[in-house]
Amino acid sequence: MTESGMKEYIYLILFLIIGIVVGNRVFNHLHAWLGVTIISATIIFFIYKLIKTLKDEKTD
To answer: Which residues cross the membrane (predicted)?
Structure first.
């Protein structure tokens, strides 16, 4: 695995952590369903990008 490949995973995990933290703050302080939506969308996007990245890595 190259450094650029590892960078992609780091950004993906960083995006996941930030999305969960922001969703949690929205859930606690603004509106519960909006927070759940943000967290769910973040997790779905993370899984989609992870599968796409792993599939691209497998073909290389």
So the answer is: 9-27, 33-51
Structure tokens that stand for 49 in this block: 């990008």
Tens digits of per-residue pLDDT, 1-39? 567 778 888 999 999 999 999 999 999 999 999 999 999
- Please state whether the predicted TM-score (pTM) of the whole model is above 0.70: yes
Spatial neighbors of 35 by CB under 8 A, at least 6 apart, are 23, 24, 25, 26, 27, 28
Q: Which two tokens stand for residue 22?
A: 């922001």
Half-sphere exposure of 25 (CA within 13 A, CB side): 5
